[in-house]
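Trying the structure run again after the queue cleared.
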Amino acid sequence: MTHSGRHRGPASPDLSALTAGIEDAFPHLSPQLKLAARYVLDAPQDVALHSMRAVAARAGVHPSTMVRLAKELDFSGYSAFREPFRESLRSRPTHYAVRARHLHARGAAREAVALFGEARDTATSNIRDTFADTEPAALEAVAETLAGANRIYVVGMRKCYPVAFYFHYACRMFHDRTVLVEAGAGTFADSLRGLGPGDALLAIGFDPYTRETVRAARQAEAVGAAVIAVTDSVVSPLTAGARHVFVVANAGPSFFRSLVAALALVETFVAFLVARGGRVAIEALSQTERHLENFDVYWHESARGGGT
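Done. Tokens:
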């Protein structure tokens, strides 16, 4: 889903300037706008991490009230209004060691129950908010792009590799046009050698962005391939030139950003592709299953205690 909207000035204000503007405007706002503004001032991190619907629900107002608040503050829309909050969150220290020390401190304070609750709640809200901000039409459009591509290149390095590998593995079950871009033994450039017009590149990356993932997305754009970006911000370097942009929530208490929502979204890509593939996809899956059965890949209860 492509997000758009910009502040009506040369640049969006920083969060401190926006907060000051809300405080100045507060006495003149309607009662509903005051409810929304008060929540925004009290919970700026929620504005950065959660969907407009979720923020409105927590503020006790209708989603349209959040849009009206953005307009009242001279923004073109809610997405532009939210950007300073997201930028403030992104500018916080993201070093893994810093986050790990915070986790250690919580462990020493015996906050196991609170930590468990935060992990559960953020994982749940990440999925809910990501899908709340994703339209079925956007999923249909990306499925059309992927289904029509000559080859689908998939890149997700370092912490995002599991998401990329899942998509590659799942798609290989019903077609053989997927290429997993890897960097083992210095072969990153080799993996992209065949990338060209008519292909698609699925790029998955979160802040801090891995250099190879950004380079792959830019190379794909340069050669005329369709780029599908799964990332954490509309200003991510992966979004420049992308045909499809999906912004996922990735909050979490651990030192890595959460992959839960990204994996759920990519699972949905696969589901839409299978649904679009119809009988051809079903037959390909059946052939794959027979192949795996011939190699005796899966454990069967009858094998327990037998063999050597």
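The mean pLDDT is 81. Worth checking whether this holds up in the mutant runs.
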